[in-house]
Protein backbone atom coordinates (compact mmCIF):
# COMPACT_ATOMS: atom_id res chain seq x y z
CA UNK A 1 0.00 0.00 0.00
CA UNK A 2 2.85 2.35 0.84
CA UNK A 3 4.26 1.82 -2.62
CA UNK A 4 1.08 2.86 -4.40
CA UNK A 5 0.52 5.73 -2.01
CA UNK A 6 4.01 7.05 -2.73
CA UNK A 7 3.49 6.50 -6.44
CA UNK A 8 0.22 8.40 -6.48
CA UNK A 9 1.74 11.18 -4.41
CA UNK A 10 4.66 11.62 -6.77
CA UNK A 11 2.42 11.77 -9.84
CA UNK A 12 1.84 15.32 -11.08
CA UNK A 13 -1.87 14.92 -11.85
CA UNK A 14 -2.69 14.07 -8.24
CA UNK A 15 -0.80 17.07 -6.81
CA UNK A 16 -2.79 18.86 -4.16
CA UNK A 17 -5.27 16.02 -3.65
CA UNK A 18 -6.14 15.32 -0.01
CA UNK A 19 -4.12 12.60 1.68
CA UNK A 20 -7.05 10.32 2.67
CA UNK A 21 -8.22 10.27 -0.96
CA UNK A 22 -4.79 9.19 -2.17
CA UNK A 23 -4.66 6.52 0.53
CA UNK A 24 -8.10 5.33 -0.50
CA UNK A 25 -6.96 5.14 -4.10
CA UNK A 26 -3.92 3.12 -3.06
CA UNK A 27 -6.15 0.72 -1.12
CA UNK A 28 -8.49 0.39 -4.09
CA UNK A 29 -5.56 -0.38 -6.38
CA UNK A 30 -4.38 -3.12 -4.03
CA UNK A 31 -7.91 -4.51 -3.81
CA UNK A 32 -8.27 -4.64 -7.59
CA UNK A 33 -4.89 -6.33 -8.00
CA UNK A 34 -5.74 -8.92 -5.34
CA UNK A 35 -9.19 -9.51 -6.80
CA UNK A 36 -7.74 -10.10 -10.26
CA UNK A 37 -5.07 -12.36 -8.80
CA UNK A 38 -7.61 -14.35 -6.81
CA UNK A 39 -9.90 -14.75 -9.81
CA UNK A 40 -7.08 -16.03 -11.99
CA UNK A 41 -5.77 -18.30 -9.24
CA UNK A 42 -9.23 -19.77 -8.71
CA UNK A 43 -9.61 -20.43 -12.42
CA UNK A 44 -6.30 -22.26 -12.46
CA UNK A 45 -7.13 -24.20 -9.29
CA UNK A 46 -10.53 -25.29 -10.56
CA UNK A 47 -8.90 -26.82 -13.62
CA UNK A 48 -6.01 -28.18 -11.55
CA UNK A 49 -8.36 -29.86 -9.13
CA UNK A 50 -10.20 -31.62 -11.94
CA UNK A 51 -6.92 -32.66 -13.51
CA UNK A 52 -5.53 -33.93 -10.20
CA UNK A 53 -8.77 -35.78 -9.55
CA UNK A 54 -8.61 -37.26 -13.03
CA UNK A 55 -5.04 -38.44 -12.90
CA UNK A 56 -5.47 -39.91 -9.42
CA UNK A 57 -8.35 -41.94 -10.79
CA UNK A 58 -6.52 -43.02 -13.96
CA UNK A 59 -8.38 -40.67 -16.27
CA UNK A 60 -7.60 -37.35 -17.93
CA UNK A 61 -10.17 -34.85 -16.65
CA UNK A 62 -11.40 -32.15 -19.03
CA UNK A 63 -9.79 -32.56 -22.44
CA UNK A 64 -11.75 -30.69 -25.11
CA UNK A 65 -12.17 -26.97 -24.42
CA UNK A 66 -9.14 -25.10 -25.73
CA UNK A 67 -7.87 -28.04 -27.78
CA UNK A 68 -4.94 -28.76 -25.49
CA UNK A 69 -5.89 -30.74 -22.36
CA UNK A 70 -8.96 -28.61 -21.65
CA UNK A 71 -6.87 -25.52 -20.94
CA UNK A 72 -9.81 -23.14 -21.47
CA UNK A 73 -12.25 -25.17 -19.37
CA UNK A 74 -12.40 -22.56 -16.53
CA UNK A 75 -13.44 -19.88 -19.04
CA UNK A 76 -16.13 -22.14 -20.44
CA UNK A 77 -17.29 -22.81 -16.87
CA UNK A 78 -17.38 -19.08 -16.15
CA UNK A 79 -19.48 -18.38 -19.25
CA UNK A 80 -21.79 -21.20 -18.30
CA UNK A 81 -22.24 -19.78 -14.78
CA UNK A 82 -23.04 -16.38 -16.26
CA UNK A 83 -25.65 -17.80 -18.61
CA UNK A 84 -27.44 -19.87 -15.96
CA UNK A 85 -30.83 -18.76 -14.78
CA UNK A 86 -30.70 -17.01 -11.42
CA UNK A 87 -33.35 -18.85 -9.44
CA UNK A 88 -34.38 -17.69 -5.98
CA UNK A 89 -36.59 -19.85 -3.76
CA UNK A 90 -39.96 -18.17 -3.26
CA UNK A 91 -39.75 -18.48 0.53
CA UNK A 92 -36.10 -17.50 0.87
CA UNK A 93 -35.03 -14.65 3.09
CA UNK A 94 -34.04 -12.48 0.13
CA UNK A 95 -31.53 -10.21 1.84
CA UNK A 96 -29.59 -12.95 3.64
CA UNK A 97 -29.83 -15.19 0.63
CA UNK A 98 -28.37 -12.59 -1.70
CA UNK A 99 -25.66 -11.46 0.72
CA UNK A 100 -24.39 -14.94 1.66
CA UNK A 101 -22.18 -15.65 -1.39
CA UNK A 102 -20.64 -12.20 -1.14
CA UNK A 103 -19.88 -12.65 2.57
CA UNK A 104 -18.38 -16.08 1.87
CA UNK A 105 -16.13 -14.73 -0.82
CA UNK A 106 -15.20 -11.60 1.09
CA UNK A 107 -14.02 -13.66 4.05
CA UNK A 108 -11.58 -15.51 1.84
CA UNK A 109 -10.63 -12.43 -0.14
CA UNK A 110 -9.77 -10.26 2.88
CA UNK A 111 -7.15 -12.77 4.02
CA UNK A 112 -5.09 -12.04 0.92
CA UNK A 113 -4.39 -8.52 2.12
CA UNK A 114 -1.83 -9.72 4.67
CA UNK A 115 -0.23 -12.56 2.71
CA UNK A 116 3.49 -11.77 2.41
CA UNK A 117 4.27 -12.62 -1.22
CA UNK A 118 7.66 -11.02 -0.81
CA UNK A 119 9.53 -8.61 1.46
CA UNK A 120 7.66 -5.72 -0.20
CA UNK A 121 4.89 -7.59 -2.03
CA UNK A 122 2.26 -7.42 0.62
CA UNK A 123 -1.09 -5.64 0.68
CA UNK A 124 -0.77 -4.33 4.21
CA UNK A 125 2.04 -4.99 6.68
CA UNK A 126 -0.24 -5.46 9.64
CA UNK A 127 1.37 -6.09 13.01
CA UNK A 128 -1.57 -8.38 13.84
CA UNK A 129 -1.44 -10.06 10.42
CA UNK A 130 -1.83 -13.63 11.62
CA UNK A 131 -4.68 -12.75 13.96
CA UNK A 132 -6.35 -10.77 11.18
CA UNK A 133 -6.01 -13.70 8.78
CA UNK A 134 -7.75 -16.10 11.18
CA UNK A 135 -10.42 -13.53 11.98
CA UNK A 136 -11.28 -12.91 8.33
CA UNK A 137 -11.15 -16.53 7.23
CA UNK A 138 -13.68 -17.42 9.94
CA UNK A 139 -16.03 -14.83 8.38
CA UNK A 140 -16.78 -17.55 5.84
CA UNK A 141 -18.85 -19.41 8.39
CA UNK A 142 -21.18 -16.42 8.72
CA UNK A 143 -21.74 -16.60 4.98
CA UNK A 144 -22.45 -20.31 5.29
CA UNK A 145 -25.01 -19.79 8.03
CA UNK A 146 -26.63 -16.95 6.09
CA UNK A 147 -26.86 -19.18 3.03
CA UNK A 148 -28.29 -22.09 5.01
CA UNK A 149 -30.83 -20.03 6.89
CA UNK A 150 -31.73 -17.77 3.98
CA UNK A 151 -32.42 -20.64 1.58
CA UNK A 152 -35.28 -21.89 3.75
CA UNK A 153 -34.36 -25.44 2.83
CA UNK A 154 -33.79 -28.27 5.29
CA UNK A 155 -30.68 -29.57 3.53
CA UNK A 156 -29.17 -26.13 3.38
CA UNK A 157 -29.88 -25.58 7.06
CA UNK A 158 -28.35 -28.93 8.04
CA UNK A 159 -25.26 -28.03 6.05
CA UNK A 160 -25.06 -24.62 7.63
CA UNK A 161 -25.39 -25.99 11.18
CA UNK A 162 -22.67 -28.53 10.49
CA UNK A 163 -20.53 -25.82 8.97
CA UNK A 164 -20.95 -23.62 11.99
CA UNK A 165 -20.13 -26.41 14.44
CA UNK A 166 -17.15 -27.51 12.43
CA UNK A 167 -15.54 -24.18 11.66
CA UNK A 168 -16.03 -22.84 15.16
CA UNK A 169 -14.52 -26.01 16.68
CA UNK A 170 -11.56 -26.24 14.37
CA UNK A 171 -10.79 -22.57 14.74
CA UNK A 172 -9.39 -23.37 18.18
CA UNK A 173 -6.69 -25.93 17.30
CA UNK A 174 -5.96 -23.91 14.15
CA UNK A 175 -5.22 -20.76 16.08
CA UNK A 176 -3.45 -22.56 18.93
CA UNK A 177 -1.21 -24.45 16.51
CA UNK A 178 0.47 -21.26 15.34
CA UNK A 179 1.00 -19.86 18.85
CA UNK A 180 4.35 -21.68 19.30
CA UNK A 181 5.60 -19.95 16.18
CA UNK A 182 4.42 -16.64 17.55
CA UNK A 183 6.29 -17.48 20.76
CA UNK A 184 9.54 -18.10 18.89
CA UNK A 185 9.37 -15.08 16.63
CA UNK A 186 7.62 -12.79 19.05
CA UNK A 187 5.44 -11.29 16.38
CA UNK A 188 2.06 -11.75 14.71
CA UNK A 189 3.30 -9.97 11.62
CA UNK A 190 3.57 -12.53 8.82
CA UNK A 191 6.46 -10.64 7.27
CA UNK A 192 8.47 -10.78 10.49
CA UNK A 193 7.63 -14.47 10.96
CA UNK A 194 8.90 -15.16 7.44
CA UNK A 195 12.02 -13.08 8.02
CA UNK A 196 12.82 -15.24 11.05
CA UNK A 197 13.07 -18.25 8.75
CA UNK A 198 15.53 -16.76 6.26
CA UNK A 199 18.80 -18.48 5.56
CA UNK A 200 19.22 -22.19 5.12
CA UNK A 201 16.35 -24.62 4.78
CA UNK A 202 16.68 -25.94 8.36
CA UNK A 203 15.82 -22.46 9.62
CA UNK A 204 12.23 -23.09 8.56
CA UNK A 205 9.89 -23.64 11.44
CA UNK A 206 8.64 -26.91 10.05
CA UNK A 207 12.04 -28.53 10.72
CA UNK A 208 11.78 -27.91 14.43
CA UNK A 209 10.45 -31.20 15.92
CA UNK A 210 7.75 -29.58 18.06
CA UNK A 211 6.75 -27.11 15.37
CA UNK A 212 6.45 -29.95 12.88
CA UNK A 213 3.73 -31.34 15.11
CA UNK A 214 1.97 -28.00 15.20
CA UNK A 215 2.32 -27.77 11.40
CA UNK A 216 0.53 -31.11 11.02
CA UNK A 217 -2.23 -29.95 13.37
CA UNK A 218 -2.48 -26.69 11.46
CA UNK A 219 -2.84 -28.59 8.17
CA UNK A 220 -5.59 -30.86 9.51
CA UNK A 221 -7.48 -27.99 11.11
CA UNK A 222 -7.10 -25.82 8.02
CA UNK A 223 -8.72 -28.53 5.90
CA UNK A 224 -11.72 -28.36 8.21
CA UNK A 225 -11.61 -24.58 8.18
CA UNK A 226 -12.02 -24.43 4.39
CA UNK A 227 -14.55 -27.32 4.31
CA UNK A 228 -12.48 -29.65 2.19
CA UNK A 229 -12.77 -33.41 2.12
CA UNK A 230 -12.35 -35.23 4.54
CA UNK A 231 -14.12 -32.44 6.43
CA UNK A 232 -16.60 -31.23 3.80
CA UNK A 233 -19.64 -32.00 5.94
CA UNK A 234 -21.37 -28.65 5.24
CA UNK A 235 -21.86 -29.65 1.62
CA UNK A 236 -21.68 -33.44 1.88
CA UNK A 237 -23.42 -34.15 -1.40
CA UNK A 238 -24.22 -37.78 -0.67
CA UNK A 239 -26.48 -36.98 2.26
CA UNK A 240 -27.36 -33.25 2.03
CA UNK A 241 -27.84 -32.75 -1.75
CA UNK A 242 -25.29 -29.94 -1.81
CA UNK A 243 -25.46 -28.62 1.74
CA UNK A 244 -25.64 -24.90 2.28
CA UNK A 245 -25.51 -24.01 -1.42
CA UNK A 246 -28.28 -26.39 -2.49
CA UNK A 247 -30.53 -23.56 -3.64
CA UNK A 248 -27.94 -21.49 -5.42
CA UNK A 249 -27.50 -21.25 -9.18
CA UNK A 250 -25.36 -19.40 -11.65
CA UNK A 251 -23.03 -16.70 -10.46
CA UNK A 252 -24.14 -16.96 -6.83
CA UNK A 253 -23.03 -20.58 -6.77
CA UNK A 254 -19.84 -19.58 -8.58
CA UNK A 255 -19.07 -17.14 -5.80
CA UNK A 256 -19.22 -19.95 -3.23
CA UNK A 257 -16.78 -21.91 -5.36
CA UNK A 258 -14.61 -18.84 -5.77
CA UNK A 259 -14.62 -18.37 -2.01
CA UNK A 260 -13.75 -22.01 -1.36
CA UNK A 261 -10.78 -22.06 -3.70
CA UNK A 262 -9.57 -18.65 -2.59
CA UNK A 263 -9.77 -19.86 1.01
CA UNK A 264 -7.80 -22.98 0.12
CA UNK A 265 -5.02 -20.84 -1.26
CA UNK A 266 -5.20 -18.47 1.71
CA UNK A 267 -4.75 -21.16 4.36
CA UNK A 268 -2.01 -22.77 2.27
CA UNK A 269 -0.24 -19.43 1.99
CA UNK A 270 -0.48 -18.86 5.73
CA UNK A 271 0.99 -22.33 6.30
CA UNK A 272 3.83 -21.42 3.97
CA UNK A 273 4.48 -18.09 5.64
CA UNK A 274 4.31 -19.46 9.16
CA UNK A 275 5.93 -22.88 8.84
CA UNK A 276 7.49 -23.38 5.43
CA UNK A 277 9.79 -20.40 5.18
CA UNK A 278 7.55 -18.04 3.24
CA UNK A 279 9.41 -16.36 0.41
CA UNK A 280 12.77 -17.89 1.44
CA UNK A 281 13.94 -20.60 -0.92
CA UNK A 282 15.97 -22.36 1.77
CA UNK A 283 19.29 -21.78 0.02
CA UNK A 284 20.63 -18.24 0.57
CA UNK A 285 22.24 -18.10 -2.87
CA UNK A 286 18.97 -18.92 -4.61
CA UNK A 287 17.10 -16.17 -2.78
CA UNK A 288 18.85 -13.56 -4.86
CA UNK A 289 18.08 -15.37 -8.15
CA UNK A 290 14.44 -16.40 -7.85
CA UNK A 291 11.92 -13.59 -7.22
CA UNK A 292 10.30 -13.88 -3.80
CA UNK A 293 6.67 -14.05 -5.03
CA UNK A 294 7.55 -16.98 -7.29
CA UNK A 295 8.91 -18.96 -4.35
CA UNK A 296 5.98 -18.04 -2.14
CA UNK A 297 3.31 -18.87 -4.71
CA UNK A 298 5.16 -22.03 -5.72
CA UNK A 299 5.21 -23.33 -2.16
CA UNK A 300 1.58 -22.36 -1.64
CA UNK A 301 0.58 -24.23 -4.79
CA UNK A 302 2.40 -27.30 -3.46
CA UNK A 303 0.39 -27.09 -0.23
CA UNK A 304 -2.80 -26.68 -2.27
CA UNK A 305 -1.77 -29.79 -4.17
CA UNK A 306 -1.41 -31.56 -0.84
CA UNK A 307 -4.97 -30.52 0.01
CA UNK A 308 -6.21 -31.89 -3.32
CA UNK A 309 -4.20 -35.05 -2.85
CA UNK A 310 -5.84 -35.61 0.54
CA UNK A 311 -9.24 -34.88 -0.97
CA UNK A 312 -8.89 -37.61 -3.56
CA UNK A 313 -7.49 -40.08 -1.03
CA UNK A 314 -9.72 -39.88 2.02
CA UNK A 315 -13.42 -40.51 2.49
CA UNK A 316 -15.61 -38.05 4.37
CA UNK A 317 -15.79 -38.31 8.15
CA UNK A 318 -19.00 -38.70 10.12
CA UNK A 319 -20.19 -35.73 12.17
CA UNK A 320 -19.34 -37.38 15.50
CA UNK A 321 -15.93 -38.46 14.21
CA UNK A 322 -15.30 -34.94 13.03
CA UNK A 323 -16.07 -33.52 16.45
CA UNK A 324 -14.11 -36.15 18.35
CA UNK A 325 -11.05 -35.61 16.16
CA UNK A 326 -11.17 -31.95 17.04
CA UNK A 327 -11.99 -32.04 20.76
CA UNK A 328 -10.43 -35.34 21.82
CA UNK A 329 -7.33 -35.47 19.64
CA UNK A 330 -6.24 -32.17 18.17
CA UNK A 331 -7.11 -29.92 21.08
CA UNK A 332 -5.35 -31.96 23.85
CA UNK A 333 -2.28 -32.42 21.69
CA UNK A 334 -2.06 -28.77 20.81
CA UNK A 335 -2.57 -27.71 24.45
CA UNK A 336 0.17 -30.04 25.66
CA UNK A 337 2.38 -28.82 22.85
CA UNK A 338 1.74 -25.23 23.86
CA UNK A 339 2.60 -26.03 27.47
CA UNK A 340 5.79 -27.90 26.60
CA UNK A 341 6.88 -25.25 24.15
CA UNK A 342 6.20 -22.48 26.61
CA UNK A 343 8.17 -24.25 29.32
CA UNK A 344 11.09 -24.80 26.96
CA UNK A 345 10.97 -21.11 26.02
CA UNK A 346 11.07 -20.09 29.66
CA UNK A 347 13.80 -22.54 30.66
CA UNK A 348 16.18 -22.05 27.75
CA UNK B 1 -4.24 -42.66 26.57
CA UNK B 2 -2.41 -45.62 25.07
CA UNK B 3 -5.50 -46.45 23.05
CA UNK B 4 -5.67 -42.88 21.81
CA UNK B 5 -2.02 -42.93 20.79
CA UNK B 6 -2.61 -46.22 18.98
CA UNK B 7 -5.61 -44.76 17.19
CA UNK B 8 -3.67 -41.73 16.06
CA UNK B 9 -0.77 -43.86 14.93
CA UNK B 10 -3.08 -46.20 13.03
CA UNK B 11 -5.03 -43.42 11.35
CA UNK B 12 -1.89 -41.56 10.32
CA UNK B 13 -0.31 -44.67 8.88
CA UNK B 14 -3.47 -45.56 6.99
CA UNK B 15 -3.68 -42.04 5.58
CA UNK B 16 -0.05 -42.32 4.50
CA UNK B 17 -0.79 -45.66 2.86
CA UNK B 18 -3.76 -44.22 0.99
CA UNK B 19 -1.77 -41.21 -0.13
CA UNK B 20 1.00 -43.46 -1.41
CA UNK B 21 -1.53 -45.28 -3.56
CA UNK B 22 -3.13 -42.14 -4.96
CA UNK B 23 0.20 -40.50 -5.79
CA UNK B 24 1.28 -43.69 -7.54
CA UNK B 25 -1.80 -43.47 -9.75
CA UNK B 26 -1.25 -39.75 -10.22
CA UNK B 27 1.98 -40.45 -12.08
CA UNK B 28 0.66 -43.41 -14.02
CA UNK B 29 -0.69 -42.98 -17.51
CA UNK B 30 -4.51 -42.79 -17.45
CA UNK B 31 -6.40 -45.71 -18.91
CA UNK B 32 -8.97 -43.45 -20.55
CA UNK B 33 -9.48 -43.83 -24.25
CA UNK B 34 -10.33 -40.54 -25.97
CA UNK B 35 -13.27 -42.18 -27.67
CA UNK B 36 -14.11 -40.43 -30.92
CA UNK B 37 -10.42 -39.93 -31.63
CA UNK B 38 -9.14 -43.32 -30.50
CA UNK B 39 -11.19 -46.48 -30.73
CA UNK B 40 -10.94 -50.08 -29.77
CA UNK B 41 -9.99 -52.36 -32.62
CA UNK B 42 -13.10 -54.45 -33.02
CA UNK B 43 -13.09 -58.24 -33.12
CA UNK B 44 -13.36 -59.62 -36.62
CA UNK B 45 -16.78 -61.14 -36.10
CA UNK B 46 -18.20 -58.03 -34.41
CA UNK B 47 -21.87 -57.55 -35.29
CA UNK B 48 -22.40 -53.91 -36.14
CA UNK B 49 -25.03 -52.34 -38.36
CA UNK B 50 -26.06 -54.60 -41.21
CA UNK B 51 -24.50 -53.79 -44.54
CA UNK B 52 -26.36 -54.71 -47.71
CA UNK B 53 -24.44 -54.59 -50.96
CA UNK B 54 -27.53 -53.76 -53.07
CA UNK B 55 -26.03 -54.34 -56.54
CA UNK B 56 -25.43 -57.94 -55.58
CA UNK B 57 -28.78 -58.47 -53.85
CA UNK B 58 -31.00 -61.01 -55.55
CA UNK B 59 -34.07 -59.87 -53.61
CA UNK B 60 -34.63 -63.47 -52.64
CA UNK B 61 -36.08 -62.53 -49.22
CA UNK B 62 -34.23 -65.33 -47.50
CA UNK B 63 -32.82 -62.86 -45.03
CA UNK B 64 -36.27 -61.47 -44.29
CA UNK B 65 -37.52 -64.97 -43.63
CA UNK B 66 -34.55 -65.85 -41.47
CA UNK B 67 -35.02 -62.79 -39.31
CA UNK B 68 -36.48 -63.86 -35.95
CA UNK B 69 -37.99 -60.43 -35.29
CA UNK B 70 -39.10 -59.63 -38.87
CA UNK B 71 -37.23 -56.40 -39.09
CA UNK B 72 -36.16 -56.69 -42.75
CA UNK B 73 -38.65 -55.31 -45.27
CA UNK B 74 -38.27 -56.18 -48.95
CA UNK B 75 -40.81 -54.91 -51.49
CA UNK B 76 -40.95 -55.71 -55.18
CA UNK B 77 -42.56 -53.94 -58.12
CA UNK B 78 -43.52 -55.12 -61.61
CA UNK B 79 -43.87 -58.57 -63.04
CA UNK B 80 -41.68 -61.08 -64.79
CA UNK B 81 -38.57 -59.61 -66.35
CA UNK B 82 -39.56 -56.03 -65.42
CA UNK B 83 -39.47 -56.95 -61.76
CA UNK B 84 -37.56 -54.48 -59.58
CA UNK B 85 -36.79 -54.24 -55.92
CA UNK B 86 -38.33 -50.99 -54.69
CA UNK B 87 -37.52 -51.26 -51.04
CA UNK B 88 -34.95 -52.94 -48.85
CA UNK B 89 -35.19 -51.63 -45.32
CA UNK B 90 -34.03 -52.76 -41.89
CA UNK B 91 -35.78 -51.50 -38.80
CA UNK B 92 -33.09 -51.18 -36.15
CA UNK B 93 -35.73 -50.58 -33.51
CA UNK B 94 -36.44 -54.25 -33.78
CA UNK B 95 -33.11 -55.69 -34.87
CA UNK B 96 -31.49 -57.90 -32.25
CA UNK B 97 -28.09 -58.10 -34.00
CA UNK B 98 -28.30 -61.89 -34.21
CA UNK B 99 -26.65 -62.14 -37.61
CA UNK B 100 -29.08 -64.87 -38.68
CA UNK B 101 -29.93 -62.85 -41.84
CA UNK B 102 -26.40 -63.11 -43.13
CA UNK B 103 -26.34 -66.89 -43.10
CA UNK B 104 -28.83 -67.89 -45.82
CA UNK B 105 -27.81 -65.16 -48.27
CA UNK B 106 -26.93 -66.77 -51.60
CA UNK B 107 -24.58 -64.01 -52.72
CA UNK B 108 -23.22 -63.00 -49.31
CA UNK B 109 -24.33 -59.46 -50.00
CA UNK B 110 -25.85 -58.95 -46.54
CA UNK B 111 -23.18 -58.82 -43.86
CA UNK B 112 -22.67 -57.43 -40.38
CA UNK B 113 -20.40 -54.38 -40.62
CA UNK B 114 -18.16 -52.82 -37.99
CA UNK B 115 -20.22 -49.61 -37.76
CA UNK B 116 -21.78 -49.12 -34.35
CA UNK B 117 -22.05 -45.47 -33.48
CA UNK B 118 -25.03 -44.20 -35.43
CA UNK B 119 -26.74 -41.83 -33.01
CA UNK B 120 -30.02 -40.34 -34.11
CA UNK B 121 -32.49 -37.83 -32.79
CA UNK B 122 -35.68 -39.59 -33.90
CA UNK B 123 -36.72 -43.16 -33.45
CA UNK B 124 -38.21 -43.47 -36.93
CA UNK B 125 -34.80 -42.60 -38.40
CA UNK B 126 -33.66 -46.02 -37.19
CA UNK B 127 -35.47 -47.60 -40.12
CA UNK B 128 -32.62 -47.70 -42.59
CA UNK B 129 -33.54 -47.62 -46.28
CA UNK B 130 -30.98 -49.27 -48.50
CA UNK B 131 -32.68 -48.71 -51.88
CA UNK B 132 -33.39 -45.19 -53.13
CA UNK B 133 -35.00 -46.02 -56.46
CA UNK B 134 -36.14 -49.42 -57.70
CA UNK B 135 -33.26 -51.61 -58.83
CA UNK B 136 -33.19 -54.72 -60.89
CA UNK B 137 -32.26 -57.59 -58.63
CA UNK B 138 -29.00 -59.33 -59.28
CA UNK B 139 -29.23 -62.61 -61.15
CA UNK B 140 -26.79 -65.33 -60.26
CA UNK B 141 -25.09 -66.28 -63.53
CA UNK B 142 -25.78 -69.89 -64.41
CA UNK B 143 -22.74 -71.95 -63.73
CA UNK B 144 -21.95 -75.23 -65.30
CA UNK B 145 -22.94 -77.82 -62.77
CA UNK B 146 -20.20 -79.15 -60.57
CA UNK B 147 -20.43 -82.38 -58.76
CA UNK B 148 -18.42 -81.53 -55.68
CA UNK B 149 -19.24 -79.53 -52.61
CA UNK B 150 -20.31 -76.47 -54.65
CA UNK B 151 -23.23 -78.48 -55.98
CA UNK B 152 -24.89 -78.31 -52.63
CA UNK B 153 -24.89 -74.56 -52.38
CA UNK B 154 -25.46 -73.42 -55.97
CA UNK B 155 -28.76 -75.24 -56.61
CA UNK B 156 -30.02 -74.16 -53.21
CA UNK B 157 -29.35 -70.58 -54.18
CA UNK B 158 -31.02 -70.84 -57.57
CA UNK B 159 -34.03 -72.63 -56.14
CA UNK B 160 -34.31 -69.87 -53.58
CA UNK B 161 -34.57 -67.24 -56.30
CA UNK B 162 -37.13 -69.35 -58.07
CA UNK B 163 -39.26 -69.68 -54.94
CA UNK B 164 -39.12 -66.00 -54.43
CA UNK B 165 -40.12 -65.30 -58.01
CA UNK B 166 -43.07 -67.60 -57.61
CA UNK B 167 -44.33 -65.68 -54.69
CA UNK B 168 -44.35 -62.43 -56.59
Radius of gyration of chain A: 21 Å
Distance between the termini of chain B: 94 Å
Helical run tally of chain A: 14
The total of helices of chain B stands at: 3
Number of strands of chain B: 5
What name is given to the CATH topology of the domain at 50-129 in chain B? Alpha-Beta Plaits
Q: Return residue spans of chain A where pLDDT drops below 50 for at least 5 consecutive residues.
A: none
**Sheet of most strands of chain A:** none
Indicate the low-confidence ranges of chain B by residue numbers: 151-168
Counting helices, strands and paired strands, the structural category of chain A is mainly alpha
Q: Which percent band covers the strand fraction of chain B?
A: 5-15%
Question: Which bin fits the share of residues in helices of chain B?
Answer: 25-40%
Question: Domains counted in the coordinates of chain A: how many?
Answer: 2
Short characterization:
The complex is a heterodimer of chains A (about 350) and B (about 170). With about 350 residues, chain A is an all-alpha fold. Helices cover about 65% and strands about 0% of the residues of chain A.
Which secondary structure elements does this structure contain, and how are they paired or packed?
The complex is a heterodimer of chains A (about 350) and B (about 170).
Chain A: H1 2-10, H2 19-56, H3 73-83, H4 94-111, H5 129-137, H6 140-151, H7 154-185, H8 190-195, H9 209-225, H10 237-240, H11 250-274, H12 284-287, H13 292-311, H14 319-347
Helix pairs in contact in A: 1-2, 2-11, 3-11, 4-5, 4-6, 4-11, 6-7, 7-9, 7-14, 9-11, 9-14, 11-13
Chain B: H1 2-26, E1 50-52, H2 62-66, E2 72-77, E3 84-91, E4 110-112, E5 127-129, H3 150-167
